Each structure stands twice: as C-alpha cells, then as structure tokens.
Amino acid sequence: MERKRVALEVVAEVSGVEVESLGPETELVGQLGIDSPKALQLLVELEDRLGVEIDDDDVVKLKTVGDVIQAIERLE
C-alpha cells in the first residue's frame, strides 16, 4: 500500500494534478499531458523513491495510472 501511495504522489507531482483526481483509468498522456520528458522524470522519480528498477519492457506499457500501480506492485 505504501508503494502505491508513493507512486500516486509521484504521478501527481509530475503531472501537476491532485492525487485525489487520479484514478486507475486516468491516461498518462491523454489526460495528464505526460510527454516524453515528463515520462522520463516520472520513471526516475519512481525508481529513486521506491528503490527499484522498472524494466524497459514495462515502461513502454505504462498508459494509465493503473498501469503504473501494477508495474510497481509486480516489483514487490
């Protein structure tokens, strides 16, 4: 649960949207405007704060907030 909260906080910070506004179906690009530079920032922040390394194959699959949460949960 802690990792999920951290992931939501990182997505919120990078996108400039409140955590409460994020849902599993929220689209990173379409709804939050996360472009390539922001996507890199998101990835680096997640890895730094959670002490994990997200596989490149998983990164390309991250389309929604729910995808981010699932990728983090798979690392536990």
Description:
The protein is mostly helical and 76 residues long. It has one domain: ACP-like (Non-ribosomal Peptide Synthetase Peptidyl Carrier Protein, Chain A, Orthogonal Bundle). It has helices at residues 2-15, 36-50, 56-59, 65-74. Helix 1 packs antiparallel against helix 2 and helix 1 (2-15) runs antiparallel to helix 4. The longest helix is centred in the middle third of the chain and has 15 residues, at 36-50. It is globular, with a radius of gyration of 11 Å.
Would you kindly provide a brief summary of this structure?
With 76 residues, the protein is mainly α. The chain is 57% helix and 0% strand.
Q: Tags for this entry?
A:
Non-ribosomal Peptide Synthetase Peptidyl Carrier Protein, Chain A; mainly alpha; 76 residues
Query: What is the name of the CATH architecture?
Result: Orthogonal Bundle
Series of H and E elements: HHHH
**So what's the CATH class?**
Mainly Alpha
Q: Strand-residue fraction?
A: under 5%
Largest sheet: none
CATH topology: Non-ribosomal Peptide Synthetase Peptidyl Carrier Protein, Chain A
Q: What's the structural domain tally?
A: 1
Percent range of helical residues: 55-70%
Would you tell me the structural class of the helices and strands?
mainly alpha
Which segments are poorly predicted (pLDDT under 50) over 5 or more consecutive residues?
A: none
What is the strand tally? 0
Mean pLDDT: 92
**Distance, first to last CA:** 11 Å
Number of helices: 4
Task: Specify the overall morphology.
Answer: globular
CATH superfamily: ACP-like
